[in-house]
Amino acid sequence: MAAGLGLFFKAVALVLAPVVLAVALYSPQGFSPAPMPPEYSYGPDVTAPRHEARALERSERVGEGRLPGPEDLAYDAAGGWLYTGCADGWVRRVSVPGGDVEDWARTGGRPLGVVLAADGGLVVADADIGLLKVSPEREVALLTDAAEGVKFALTDGVDVAADSTIYFTDASYKYNLANHMTDILEARPHGRLLSFDPATGRTAVLARDLYFANGVAMSPDQSSLIYCETVVRRCSRYHITGDKKGTVEKFIDNLPGVPDNIRYDGEGRYWIALSAGRTLQWDLLMKYPFVRKLVYLVEKFVAVPHGLKNSGTMSVTLDGEPVSMYTDPGLALTTGWLKVGRHLYYGSLTKTYLSRIDLTKFSADLNE
C-alpha cells in the first residue's frame, strides 16, 4: 500500500513539475505580483473584548430586491434617510426606520463611497467616473477625476470635513473595479489618499503608495482622518492640522479581516467594515507571490473560489482600541457598517438589500 502511494505521489509530482516551472518562468503582460511589505504580519490578529459571532442570524433585511449591491452608507438624520450607492448606477435612499426605498439620483457609473454635503446634497466616490457631487435637486456634477496627471481608476471611499474639504481615496490608479481582484493579487501599492477643495477646484495627493486604499473617516475634532488599506489589513491616521500635519501614523493593524469602509458614529467609535475574514487561504496567497500568479493565470479561464467568510465589522475607540465585533461565517463582502440610533445597518457587494441588527436585542455590548 505504501509503495502504491509513493508511486502515486511521484506521478503527481511529474505532472505538476512542468506546470510549476511554466508558471515560474511565464511573466503575464502587465501583471507582476510582489512580496508583501516587511511590516506585514502573519502573526495573531487583534481581537475585540466583545464579539457577536452570529450577525447573520441577528439581522433583518431592509429594501429586499430594491438595492443591488449597496456598498457604502450615509445617514441624513434631519430627513430620516439612509443613502447608498448601488451596482446599477443608482444612488438610492431608504427611509429610517420604515425601510421604503426611493431612486434618488443616477450617476451613470458605479457609486461606492457616499457622504452628506453641508447643503443637503451628496458627495459620491464613483468607481468608474471619479469624485461626484449630487445637488439637493439631484443634479450630478463631476468634481475631479485625476490628480498630478494620473486618472483615477477606482475612486472608492469619501468623507467631508467641516470646512467642506473632501477627502477621498483612489484604491488603484492601475486597475478598475472590474479588475480589483487583480490589484489585490498583485499586491503592489497603486492607491492614493487625496483631497479636493471645492473653493479652488484643486485636487491634492496627500499620501501615495497605498495598498488598495479604501474607506475614509474624519476624526470628530477634524484634526485628522483615518483611512483603510485592504490588502495589508490596516488603517492609518493622516494628520490634517497640528505639529504632525501631513504625516501618517499607525491607527490599527493586524485586523482579523480585510478592511473596506470606515465610519464614525458620533458616539466615540469608528466602525471598520471587514469584507472578509482572514483565512489560511488568504495567508498563503499573501505570503507567496508565485501562488498569486498561479491564481491569476487560472482565473483567466475559470472562476477561482477565494473562500470568503467571516465578514463583519469591528468597532474601535478614537485611539484605535478594539471594542466590539460582529461577524458570521455565512457573511462575505459586507462593505459598509453604520450605527443609526439603536440599529446597526450594513451593506454588501452581492446582496439586493441592506441588513440591520437591533442593538436593543443583539448588541455585542450585552455580552459582557
Automatic annotation (TrEMBL):
Places the protein is found: Vacuole
The protein's name: Strictosidine synthase conserved region domain-containing protein
Source organism (scientific name): Urochloa decumbens
Organism taxonomic ancestry: Eukaryota, Viridiplantae, Streptophyta, Embryophyta, Tracheophyta
Domain of life of the organism encoding this protein: Eukaryota
Residues covered by the Strictosidine synthase conserved region domain: 156-242
Protein family (similarity comment): Belongs to the strictosidine synthase family.
Keyword Signal: yes
One Pfam assignment: Str_synth
Primary localization class, coarse: other
GO cellular component: vacuole
InterPro entries documented for this protein: 6-blade_b-propeller_TolB-like, Strictosidine_synth_cons-reg
SUPFAM superfamilies associated with the record: Calcium-dependent phosphotriesterase (SSF63829)
